[in-house]
Design goal:
With 197 residues, the protein is mostly helical. 43% of the residues lie in helices and 7% in strands. The chain has 7 helices and 4 strands. The strands form 2 sheets. The chain has a two-stranded antiparallel sheet. Helix 2 runs parallel beside helix 5. The termini are far apart.
């Protein structure tokens, strides 16, 4: 089992894990069953690997992006809970955003498959997605470190997800990722032009 691919029986048992996504992580990261399977996998595999002399570190994710489509009820629930914690009341959110939502549950979660509009909703969605994705990685890091406290962990994000303003919607934040990492992992290239423009 890899964090990137779930066994068929798991997807059959929990069909809500199947949501529209982009990237290697092909299941709902917000659904609790997915998080539980990762925890169980870590508890199984880390004791068997942690003392191997060839083990350098654990890569928590390769080319991580959190792009979960608008059909994800668990992502919507996390979004609404995050807004409630951030703003306290819907009246406070409406005053800051200039909106008239009747409840947090009415606030739409932007679709990260599309460019995110430069609005209060879009800005706060970017923050939400970055915080959630870092926390998702942190949970794996914590589970590993409970079993192997000195084993370094890292993620291997693509460098363009840190800098391109249109890609902030993907949930990758260098500062937040540094909190769970012991190694500065990256998936990046530099093409040489050999004097050609």
């Amino acid at each position: 089992i890899s964090p990137h691919y779930f066994p068929q029986w798991m997807l059959d048992k929990y069909p809500h894990l199947r949501v529209k996504r982009r990237g290697f992580l092909g299941y709902s990261l917000h659904a609790p069953e997915g998080q539980e399977l990762l925890r169980r996998f870590i508890e199984f595999i880390i004791p068997r690997l942690k003392d191997h002399p060839a083990l350098h570190s654990i890569c928590l994710s390769n080319e991580p992006i959190n792009v979960e489509g608008p059909d994800s009820n668990y992502a919507d629930a996390d979004w609404h809970a995050w807004l409630a914690q951030r703003h306290g009341t819907i009246a406070s959110l409406n005053a800051k955003w200039g909106t008239r939502h009747a409840s947090f549950n009415e606030v739409p979660r932007p679709d990260p498959f599309q460019l995110i509009a430069p609005t209060p909703n879009g800005y706060e969605f970017v923050l939400f997605n970055q915080e959630f994705f870092a926390q998702w990685h942190q949970q794996m890091a914590d589970a590993i470190h409970r079993l192997a406290p000195n084993l370094p962990v890292h993620a291997k994000p693509m460098s363009w997800t840190f800098f391109d303003e249109n890609e902030q919607r993907f949930g990758v934040n260098a500062d937040l990722f540094a909190a769970f990492s012991q190694i500065n992992g990256n998936d990046s290239v530099n093409y040489y032009s050999h004097g050609q423009s």
